[in-house]
Design goal:
By secondary structure, the chain is an alpha/beta fold. Helix content is 37%, strand content 18%. It has 18 helices and 16 strands.
């Protein structure tokens, strides 16, 4: 409630929060558009493999790039200018930097930058949810040991859902389910970069003209991105993953309390306290009434005993939509502004030393799962590709089975066949050593050591 006031005071004092952005893609550009008009924030630098692309991003988001760009960090600190570089490590180590925003979209890069941020005592806002799901519980622990904040990115669905869960629990409600909406049909798990535009009802010519990356868009269609985001929410809130993967029940906002309640009471949940994604399409492809395709939700419950009668009456008196019992109700947000809201996380980390969501344990994982029967010798092509999609699992099951996480399933060769719908195992692949593999292995060892995957981070 006081971040804007605190930022304005920092601006008045001449002590802005200095921010370094890594990755000048769409998410980063949306952040730049709002950072320009936010008092108390100073864009110290942008690191991108193409500094020219970073300069273009500044121009496209309303900055006078020629006026603001300077050659070195000393000049940037003195003048309020911005350095463009292809060296992310130099940006993280720059004197005076307060907060790193990691927006590369690469799990390996995200892990490397998070570790560097901890070493350099920088707070980090992890936009790259893929890195968070691959190794976030370990990265959060290393940040905490360094005395810094590791935070989810406000504006993206995981942080918004975490906020809603925190609100519900702080109000004394029991959370039945939380998650988001999306456009999904069961057949989409087999979607490929070749079929993605048909599934999204986007003309191929329009996609080509807009420079849309078919594999990236397909990771949203085939369910991978939903699984990643729900696993991140699970690890940050303690909510559980469905044991058989996300159900994607068709559900509009008015039906949230009835659909997302335990199966024993007529809903779809195997138990209370779950993450789940609702679809904006019925299984026949027809649209759901008042869908939540772009939004997030939390389903909450009043005390089930007779002592909860007063709360249930209040739900009715104040116009809340409930299930037939009157016990369950829901709050939702129909839209999210993605990178345009990211300044909330930056300000919270720097001014309050609080995160917008951080892993509290390793409860959920995302398994690389075969889209079709895969033969030995085939090369996996990762998120949104032709071979595998990401399916959420409980971490205890993932560790017990030795499942290969989706974040490491890119350019990896199979040495054993895998049936359609089955998870790929570590033992099924030939995988080269890398920093990401070592960090993931360290995290698995850390959470496997006492046999309890959900042990607190």
């Amino acid at each position: 409630m006081n971040l804007a006031r605190k930022l304005k005071q920092r601006a008045a004092d001449g002590r802005p929060v200095r921010v370094g952005l890594i990755g000048a893609g769409k998410f980063g550009s949306m952040f730049l558009a709002q950072l320009r008009t936010t008092p108390g924030l100073h864009l110290l630098g942008i690191a991108d493999l193409s500094p020219e692309r970073a300069k273009q991003a500044l121009t496209e988001t309303g900055w006078d790039a020629d006026a603001v760009v300077v050659r070195d960090f000393s000049t940037a600190r003195r003048t309020g200018g911005t350095v463009l570089t292809d060296d992310a490590q130099a940006l993280i180590a720059a004197d005076g930097l307060d907060v790193v925003v990691e927006a590369t979209g690469s799990p390996a890069a995200g892990i490397a930058h998070a570790l560097s941020a901890a070493r350099n005592r920088r707070h980090i806002v992890m936009v790259t949810v893929e890195a968070d799901v691959l190794a976030g519980p370990l990265l959060a622990r290393k940040a905490r040991e360094a005395g810094t904040i590791y935070s989810a990115a406000y504006g993206d669905q995981p942080a918004l859902v975490c906020e809603m869960v925190d609100w519900a629990e702080a109000c004394g409600f029991r959370v039945m389910a939380a998650g988001k909406g999306t456009r999904h049909l069961p057949a989409y798990h087999q979607s490929t970069p070749e079929t993605v535009w048909d599934n999204l009802a986007i003309p191929r010519e329009m996609a080509a003209k807009g420079g849309m990356n078919p594999q990236m868009f397909n990771s949203f269609v085939d369910g991978t991105k939903s699984a990643i985001e729900m696993a991140s929410i699970s690890n940050m809130t303690g909510l559980k993953a469905p044991r058989d993967g996300l159900l994607f029940p068709p559900c509009g906002v008015d039906d949230l309390p009835s659909v997302l309640r335990p199966a024993t009471e007529g809903g779809v949940l195997e138990e209370e306290g779950m993450v789940e994604v609702v679809s904006s399409l019925h299984t026949d492809g027809s649209p759901v009434f008042r869908d939540l395709r772009w939004g997030v939700y939390v389903v909450l419950a009043a005390d089930p005993s007779a002592r909860g009668d007063y709360s249930r009456r209040c739900f009715k008196e104040y116009g809340m939509v409930t299930d037939p019992s009157g016990r369950y109700t829901a709050l939702y947000r129909p839209y999210h502004l993605i990178g345009m809201e990211l300044g909330i996380s930056v300000a919270a980390a720097a001014l309050r030393e609080e995160s917008s969501g951080t892993p509290i344990g390793f409860l959920s994982d995302v398994a690389a799962t075969a889209k079709r029967d895969l033969a030995a010798g085939e090369m996996l092509d990762g998120e949104g590709g032709y071979t595998v999609y990401g399916r959420i699992m409980r971490a205890e099951d993932s560790l017990a089975r030795g499942v290969l996480p989706i974040g490491l399933a890119h350019r990896v060769r199979l040495k054993a066949p895998v049936k359609q719908g089955e998870p790929v195992l570590w033992s099924d692949v030939e995988i080269a050593d890398s920093d990401a593999v070592r960090v993931r292995s360290e995290m698995e060892a850390m959470f496997s050591s006492d046999g309890r995957a959900a042990r607190r981070a």
